[in-house]
Design goal:
The chain has 2 helices and 17 strands. With 247 residues, the protein is mostly beta strands.
């Protein structure tokens, strides 16, 4: 803001600039590391004289004391990630996955929920770290995809920040809790793969091991045995099949 003939110019930093500046740990964190300089042509006086080039030390510095909030979150079950968008740059090494839960409703006592585990990893998206994605760990991914009442569509996909120490911003302000936000939902569209199979000719049991939980809509008559000489046999009449929760 600038009034004609005034002595003061007030600049409101945009979201991009503010978040990028907050990413630096040795810039604008206190009065001792807060300086400003400028290029010729920044501004003129009323007679057209350009501002003298110089460097200025900040006179009054007010640190960031505002707790960050979660603005948006996305779950993508094809990529097995949750993307978080916070109100400002976050300190990613303070992220504590077990303080986050995927739940089936916006209630504080949902019917279904899954607290995330420490093997889930986070990486920034872009340069300013207010958006980052968390790769779901093996246990979390399988637990979510096995549960037919949790994270199966938009209406059963919510994220909960359970504690204020779940993550901090760059100045150490803890996130606002408890927050429950509906997830933007992208369903799993990746075809499953057979990782391995075991065959026991003593008890007649064959175990198929997949890379993700599968449906019980299973048709064993589609299985074909063959050997190194391409001698084939089509499975015709299995007596029983069952699914197991783990590999």
């Amino acid at each position: 803001k600038l009034s004609h003939g005034g002595l003061m110019l007030e600049i409101v930093l945009g979201e991009i600039d503010l978040n990028l500046v907050k990413r630096f740990t040795q810039l604008f964190t206190n009065r001792n590391n807060s300086f400003v300089t400028w290029k010729s042509g920044l501004i003129n006086d009323n007679y057209g004289n350009p501002l003298i080039n110089d460097t200025q030390h900040v006179n009054a510095f007010f640190e960031d004391l505002v707790p960050p909030i979660l603005n948006r979150a996305i779950i993508d079950l094809s990529r097995d990630v949750i993307v978080f968008k916070f109100s400002e740059t976050m300190k990613l090494d303070t992220f504590k996955a077990p303080q986050f839960a995927v739940q089936s409703s916006a209630n504080h006592t949902p019917l279904q929920s899954r607290y995330l585990t420490a093997d889930s990893k986070v990486i920034p998206v872009g340069y300013d770290w207010h958006i980052f994605e968390m790769s779901l760990g093996y246990d979390d991914m399988h637990a979510l995809k096995r549960n037919l009442n949790l994270a199966v569509n938009k209406n059963s996909s919510f994220i909960r920040i359970n504690s204020s120490n779940a993550i901090d911003d760059m100045n150490g302000n803890q996130v606002t809790a408890i927050q429950i936000e509906q997830l933007v939902f992208f369903e799993d569209k990746i075809r499953p793969e057979l990782k391995d199979f075991h065959l026991n000719m003593s008890n007649g049991i064959m175990r198929l091991v997949f890379n993700e939980p599968i449906s019980f809509g299973f048709n064993p008559h589609y299985i074909q045995f063959f050997d190194s000489n391409n001698i084939t046999y089509n499975l015709t009449n299995p007596t029983f099949w069952r699914g197991t929760g783990t590999d």
